[in-house]
Automatic annotation (TrEMBL):
Cell location: Cytoplasm
Record GO terms (molecular function): D-alanine-D-alanine ligase activity
Gene expressing this chain: ddl
UniProt main location, coarse: cytoplasm
Keyword Protein transport recorded: no
Record lineage: Bacteria, Bacillati, Actinomycetota, Actinomycetes, Streptosporangiales
Protein's name according to its UniProt entry: D-alanine--D-alanine ligase
Domain of life where this protein originates: Bacteria
PANTHER family, alphabetized: D-ALANINE--D-ALANINE LIGASE (PTHR23132), D-ALANINE--D-ALANINE LIGASE B (PTHR23132:SF23)
Enzyme class: ligase
Pathway participation: Cell wall biogenesis; peptidoglycan biosynthesis
Length: 313
């Protein structure tokens, strides 16, 4: 089988537009290096007519943030009967909502930090100070605050003192209408990517993340040189095995397809804690999945080509 016409879909209108564009360019260049006929398209008002008038063999979505990861664009691709790489809409919706994803993987046997998810209205209606006090009483300190939906660490921050929680919530609500507040787990931050070739999920080597000041925020993620990435991660054999098993378990439990990236913390006792999963992993020069692909001895272009070929009739 050969690919005659491929569309890489990037950009969109989310807060992560710039990152998505960088991911799209990298995937496009990797496929072009293999002489795959590929077109880089934005998710704009011209897209539907283009897909209808010149249907591609398959689409590779690298849209980050809302629409790209909440299943909606994939719903449109299914309406048009256009094959695409990645999870189907229903699975995206579950994975995109962090509290729901945590519930699903917890039922599948994974550890995940105790948390509470609250919409902005609760703080307005019940009184912010009272709600924040009860959160600290229940979960203790330190905490980690992030939007229930979203990526690239936008609106996410640690909270070490109770007095910091209010500002963290304000920062979180700038990027979403609901906040996930969870216990902060000390340990080694790792990311494990999962790929499917031939329908069988396979975990790639874990990437250890050593961010400046311990803050793996937006800048640390996408500015080259700010963060140290160690692959494979410096884990004991037991912890490494648990981390890869956890990523595959999350991939399967959430009903994902083709590729995913699971973020984890490994504590001092080698216990693995699930944080979240990404259905459209970044593909930029500082992104974690391409690093793991390289360390695994694979070529990014050949991987993308194989994932596209998975969906040819």
């Amino acid at each position: 089988m050969e690919l005659g016409h491929v569309v890489v879909l990037a950009g969109g209108l989310s807060y992560e537009r710039e990152v998505s564009q960088r991911s799209g360019r990298r995937v496009t260049e990797a496929l072009r290096a293999l002489d795959v006929p590929v077109e880089l398209r934005d998710a704009d008002a011209t897209l539907l007519d283009s897909l209808v008038n010149d249907p591609p063999d398959a689409v590779f979505p690298v849209l980050h943030g809302a629409a790209g990861e909440d299943g909606s664009i994939r719903d449109v691709l299914e309406l048009l009967d256009v094959p695409y790489v990645g999870a189907r809409p229903d699975a995206c919706r579950v994975a995109w909502d962090k509290p729901t994803a945590k519930s699903v993987v917890r039922r599948a046997g994974l550890n995940t930090p105790e948390s509470v998810a609250l919409p902005k209205e609760v703080f307005h209606d019940l009184g912010a100070s009272s709600v924040l006090e009860q959160i600290v009483n229940r979960l203790g300190l330190p905490l980690f605050v992030k939007p229930t939906r979203g990526g690239s660490a936008l609106g996410a921050s640690p909270v070490h003192e109770a007095a910091e929680l209010s500002a963290a919530m304000v920062g979180c609500f700038a990027y979403g209408d609901a906040a996930l507040v969870e216990r902060y787990v000390e340990g080694t931050e790792v990311s494990v990517s999962v790929i499917e070739i031939g329908g069988e999920p396979r975990a790639l080597p874990a990437v250890e993340i050593v961010a400046p000041g311990g803050r793996y925020d937006y800048t640390a993620r996408y500015d080259a040189g700010d963060t140290e990435f160690i692959t494979p991660a410096r884990l004991s054999p037991q912890a490494a095995e648990r981390a890869t098993a956890a990523a595959v378990t999350a991939h399967r439990a959430l009903g994902l397809r083709d590729l995913s990236r699971t973020d984890l913390i490994v504590d001092a006792d080698d216990e693995v804690h699930f944080l979240e999963v990404n259905v459209a992993p970044g593909m930029t020069e500082t992104s974690l999945l391409p690093r793991a692909v390289s360390v695994a001895g694979l070529d990014l272009g050949h991987l993308c080509q194989s994932l596209l070929l998975n969906h040819l009739p």
